[in-house]
Hints:
30% helix, nucleotidyltransferase (chains A, B, C, D, E, F)
Amino acid sequence: MTDIVRVDGRTTDQLRPVTIERGWSDQAEGSALISFGRTKVLCTASFTNGVPRWMAGKGKGWVTAEYSMLPRSTDSRMDRESVKGRIGGRTHEISRLVGRSLRAVVDMKALGENTIVLDCDVLQADGGTRTAAITGAYVALADALEWGREKKFLSQKAQPLIDSVSAISVGIVGGVPMLDLAYVEDSKAETDMNVVVTGRGLFVEVQGTAEGAPFDRQELNSLLDLALAGTVSLTEFQKTALGR
Amino acid sequence: MTDIVRVDGRTTDQLRPVTIERGWSDQAEGSALISFGRTKVLCTASFTNGVPRWMAGKGKGWVTAEYSMLPRSTDSRMDRESVKGRIGGRTHEISRLVGRSLRAVVDMKALGENTIVLDCDVLQADGGTRTAAITGAYVALADALEWGREKKFLSQKAQPLIDSVSAISVGIVGGVPMLDLAYVEDSKAETDMNVVVTGRGLFVEVQGTAEGAPFDRQELNSLLDLALAGTVSLTEFQKTALGR
Amino acid sequence: MTDIVRVDGRTTDQLRPVTIERGWSDQAEGSALISFGRTKVLCTASFTNGVPRWMAGKGKGWVTAEYSMLPRSTDSRMDRESVKGRIGGRTHEISRLVGRSLRAVVDMKALGENTIVLDCDVLQADGGTRTAAITGAYVALADALEWGREKKFLSQKAQPLIDSVSAISVGIVGGVPMLDLAYVEDSKAETDMNVVVTGRGLFVEVQGTAEGAPFDRQELNSLLDLALAGTVSLTEFQKTALGR
Amino acid sequence: MTDIVRVDGRTTDQLRPVTIERGWSDQAEGSALISFGRTKVLCTASFTNGVPRWMAGKGKGWVTAEYSMLPRSTDSRMDRESVKGRIGGRTHEISRLVGRSLRAVVDMKALGENTIVLDCDVLQADGGTRTAAITGAYVALADALEWGREKKFLSQKAQPLIDSVSAISVGIVGGVPMLDLAYVEDSKAETDMNVVVTGRGLFVEVQGTAEGAPFDRQELNSLLDLALAGTVSLTEFQKTALGR
Amino acid sequence: MTDIVRVDGRTTDQLRPVTIERGWSDQAEGSALISFGRTKVLCTASFTNGVPRWMAGKGKGWVTAEYSMLPRSTDSRMDRESVKGRIGGRTHEISRLVGRSLRAVVDMKALGENTIVLDCDVLQADGGTRTAAITGAYVALADALEWGREKKFLSQKAQPLIDSVSAISVGIVGGVPMLDLAYVEDSKAETDMNVVVTGRGLFVEVQGTAEGAPFDRQELNSLLDLALAGTVSLTEFQKTALGR
Amino acid sequence: MTDIVRVDGRTTDQLRPVTIERGWSDQAEGSALISFGRTKVLCTASFTNGVPRWMAGKGKGWVTAEYSMLPRSTDSRMDRESVKGRIGGRTHEISRLVGRSLRAVVDMKALGENTIVLDCDVLQADGGTRTAAITGAYVALADALEWGREKKFLSQKAQPLIDSVSAISVGIVGGVPMLDLAYVEDSKAETDMNVVVTGRGLFVEVQGTAEGAPFDRQELNSLLDLALAGTVSLTEFQKTALGR
């Protein structure tokens, strides 16, 4: 799989350079500026004591997420969704994906009646923005939970984080399964798949789409192999960023 | 897998009763009222000669879809999205899924500069509405294409349909992989997966989500096995409905 | 008036075939799929114990209605109002008309602090959708009230229904007053009138509009005669459907 | 009918004082500030040479209307529809009614490819705002048509106005049919009816609603008698205002 | 400065004719129809006992404002913001300006937990609508406060009004600083400035904008001189209107 | 003025540390990440050949701006305007201010039929976001114009930039005029003023608002002195960033 040279010189199973600037924001309870190559996403976690009214009194917390792209994060400028007055389907879809992915590693009972909102704003986009968002949001989340513990909104022994979580894109480009597609690869992929995996190696989401040509079982398996290996690396980056 | 008895007496690998009323609508160029058990979806296909302005002149067609639920298709009444003034994320997500799934089996060149809009309106919901929508929309689409051929918007030898497509949900409920979840099963599933498969057995979409607990590779494989078998049956229902 | 033959062979004072499928929905507390010829409207009644906050504590109930058309209920596809992000004037107008019409036969004191929402969704449209909606909604409403009585949300002796109600369109087409206009007649009518009448023969709404040419008092009287006769028949269909 | 004394001392068949200030606006091609008692509506007619694109090339014109209330035109302040971001059903309904009423007296062929927009803004509301709006809009319309003739957008011999039009409310209050309801009467009326009548005495719209109790044929006839007499007077006020 | 003759014959430091019809509305607690030449703004003040929930319990009141233009207040018709479904930036900006300006002369403690909403609706526009709105709104506000005192919502000795406030536009047109620009002057001004001044001669707002050419310190000073003189006159008109 | 010590140790006439990272974005034709202390704004300039249709054929260009804040740029999280479905008044106001400020230094004739959109997204907010936005946007604009020249959308000798522009806030806090207010100062200022000044020292905008107490002429003059001195420094930062 490794003698095909990709547009940026990577092997097919190689991630782009990953950086995680933990604590980028002075304001948020947790934050990370993550980059997968040229893709840069600012992830903040806002911790609020209390839950929405419809959830109150159940002793459980809530984690939700919002994803958005700056208008000129892309090669040609997009209109702002605030100006259009409505959020597009893609934005909705990714916000929901990020929220579900992070909720999968949080024990809502242990969180108690606290709410965490994860904001993932894409400052620069070059493919893989949703997977970078999930991977960075985990770091922000972990810090916000620590903040909540320091502020006594969480008890000292509460363990709301039951695992870590990261995500990566894989796809079939020109017949070849590849890891972590850059935009130019993604736009010509026959099949594109986003895979969300916990630190222990379990699947949270598998979202495969045949953009160009339907795929068979063997291709699916190759993509899953790549994704599992990629998320092992991302988990290491997260641990390093968090100083663990 | 077959000695567990489900809430409605099915085995774990059994579909609910499927019916397809082809040509339900007097108005649309193609239509089908499909039911998966108590789930009923009215699918219509609207054929328009011509394409949106931004696509004109390329000799290619366009297929798109919109999904919606009647406010009292569910057990308790939902507010209408038209009244709320905005479409929710779930609706967007499913509309996009249906559209992508049907486009995967259409040769846009062979369709020529024609547009087909698939409307999938859920009249009654009991789990699996998106998979019923895709399966029924295929029947409506096939008829709309025949209509276009009769009206000479398509040439006699054009073959825009390159395959058939159907979809089914699978999930892990109480630790057991099951086919075609009813609402009561879906709402307690640890993992829920929607799989879109062509008549030839290739994947178009694999959308697995760990609602309750992350899943491992073996569970993923069991779910895919169930889904592939289920879509073989659905393909037969489609053929029968279309008289082929 | 009876020797003019209409487009579908009816006499000028003849209704189209009327069918009422009571209890079409498994989910709603009351429901009816009504057809006036090719016009088909699914009417559901949702019973909720309690009233909106601004009405609470007055010992009175509330009945409201929402009307909508499926995008391909008509000959050429209409855009969805949810997609446009706003409800059109016609939809608003008819929703309000249906709500007022049903409220006219409900004793809000006897209903107690309960709310009934009537949803009238047009599955297929061929003229007279609003009158079919009112006529079918009455059947759904009656069943929802029975449901409320069984569930003890209404006392055994409460009589919230003070009369029945139905509605029919009339119009002047080519100078001739006619009952129950099909779409092709409606679209060329000089005057179009919708009349809502109780089972006892009293008017709830008279909405006459000169689309083409203003009308005189004698024409108005002919239209009212036709409408009163038509609603007598509709009342019988309702009684039969309800098994009374 | 005349020995019942109403809240403001009128007889049951008496209009409130009517004033029409023609040409109130310096900007509009036609305008009138009309009052029915304390109800004051500013009506402007905006004449534009040309028609919307979808109407072009047919040699016909277009007349449309928009109705709105100032937030403090009423006894307690209402939220602005612009602030709420959506137009309410009542506003839509009345805008459509005003538009249809004025179109009923315009020959669109004679108008040629010109557009007239009638804006009816309620400055103060005390019942009968929609009927005052129609009555005043006619005066503004007539002046805008003269303006169009002077500017040569209409030929010298074109006669786009085929009749005049005015409107009045009638209702049954405490069992008694009454003309031109003030707000305090309207709010307790059993039945409320708005009637739009041409200068020649033909009906354009008859919109009767049983707010409190259904009405019988005889009551309907009494209301129509009152309305026809009232619009004869209004027609005179219009003629005087227009100096005819 | 006085030998330049302006389009309407005024000197450069001369206001247009000002009229203030106090109590124009029968409904509002305070109102004024103000005109600056052809510019006419209807200002109403709505007094409500109580404050929005988020302000309750602090013993303080609230004053806010909304500004809007009728669609045909201008030379060519504008679309309604309610129809467009969104409020434009200019409307927002002016509403906020009017609100801030009036709040600057109200002692919120002395107002107590009462709310006043100022609605400024432009009936006819010829430049200076925002300054007329502020000047007229003050008169409406003063009357609404008196109403609140009479109704005992304010104590007899409470003095919520700590000063009066008025506003005027100034600008540089053809190199010459001028007071109270009419529309035709405003549209060709190099610099346009709106100045809000209290009765005691203190600034509340200074909003200068170089539409055509940046301005220097000396020009700024000339404009401020003109504005201060103009607001002295406006203060007199307010006093006269209020009978003080 | 210099012996008062401010919250962060500055003198009253001292700017916070200013940094300008020119070319922060790989995608935009011009960009700058500017910081005024903890306030960070990402400014991008998008150059498009051509102008909106309503401007075409006049040989002139267009410059416009959009300002927005990330939801967690502030101390407590704000709802996204895209989620609320409408843009707030403050956002509108600042977007318009930024656009006007930059247009003041562009010769639209020299720009030719090209459009530049300036996006100013606040990543972190600590007072002065609008002034940082204007100051940074100028740098992005200058680079985008160079890009346009290289791409031959501008002729070699065209000089669209007629001056530079920067902006700073000033205010009276505790009776003392101060330069470049941090959030904690701004929120307790009696008067707050934003001043936009060209490189040559001419005013483009003067926006002074008495949030707490009206101000007199002398205070206004002190504020303008501070602002003029501050913008001289900002002009130097801009020159350095642009390598001039």
